[in-house]
């Protein structure tokens, strides 16, 4: 064993560094046991090798264990700690708990909550009536347990307004469903068996909640736009792909259902709470108005958005600025150098996900190849002598045909 001590003085602080180099050849080291003086006893040593740690510090950290407890352990068991240690300004040692690529959690991990994982403690808020109504309407429209009740409400609207078009029925349904749903559940609470989720949703959200600046969901890290302005990166771009009834004009009575992308900036992250601690995380966004020329596609098939043409400027209760956090995809926007009012929208890919098959082109499969029967299947069937050519036989043992000087360099 070789022990080297180095004393380094940095800014008036004396740091004692010990480096223990153990050179053991053909010897099995038994269990190191504690000795009051830390001396060698019977081939065993009470020394813990750690950067910047003295034997006094190590002995004091193990004072809770008695000699009888140490000696009672079998010597065949060898317990070696491989956790690196760091030295504080007072000379004590603490384990190095810094994460590595193998021990750190997955980046942009959602956690166990399907709604995502908010970052930070957030701040408590009291939401106004308009914000609560907007958020509550969106939650009711996208919770699966409420879907059967939406169909009943549409039937009730058709009964009351027999001459209404589908567009008018949809408008009435979106504006009044949350009020109808509350009265419907309360009126039949004693007769119908509603689930606990339906009862809590019908009661409505609490006026108080929390707001946050960042959230991780769908393996994306989102930040609000105000938070993004102080960062070098951009994490506030949002895409919503919604199934929407599209009308060609105001007089059109036959809408087309399709997937429509909506682009926006994330402005707020709120947590809405219902009875019995049922919570939802929602994103409030500034959405580009697709119907008023806020979205277009150039000749190179890039999506361009104009944030001067936004939806819901008046902030009415029937507006829909909110989405559920798990409905969001991420995008980032690049200003168009030809026209600064327009921004190129680029869809972000999830971390560690790769698009492999969507851009693969279909090709015709190879046909069955017919091989010539004369092609040998293995070396034993191959004939390495040419046919039709007279060969030359050479006797390798004949020394007359071999001149040793031909392989030597001439020396003057």
Largest sheet entry = 10 strands, antiparallel
Residue share in helix: 10-25%
Topology order in helix (H) and strand (E) letters: EEHHEEEEHHHHEEEHEEEEEEEE
The Cα radius of gyration reads 38 Å
Shape, principal axes of CA atoms: elongated
User: How many strands in all?
Assistant: 17
Structural class: alpha+beta
Strand content: 15-25%
Distance between the termini: 63 Å
Overall pLDDT:
74
Supply database-style keywords.
25% strand, elongated, DUF4216 domain-containing protein, DUF4216
Folded structure, characterized:
The structure is a single chain. This protein has 412 residues and is an alpha+beta fold. It folds into 2 domains: 2-95, no CATH class; 119-347, no CATH class. Helices cover 18% and strands 25% of the residues. The protein has 7 helices and 17 strands. The strands form 4 sheets. Strands 6, 7, 10, 11, 12, 13, 14, 15, 16 and 17 form a 10-stranded antiparallel beta sheet that branches. Strands 5-8-9 form a 3-stranded antiparallel beta sheet. Strands 1-2 form a two-stranded antiparallel sheet. A hairpin with a 5-residue loop joins strand 3 (85-87) and strand 4. Helix 3 crosses helix 5, helix 4 (147-160) packs across helix 5 (166-187) and helix 5 packs across helix 6 (196-203). The longest helix is centred in the middle third of the chain and has 22 residues, at 166-187. The protein is elongated.
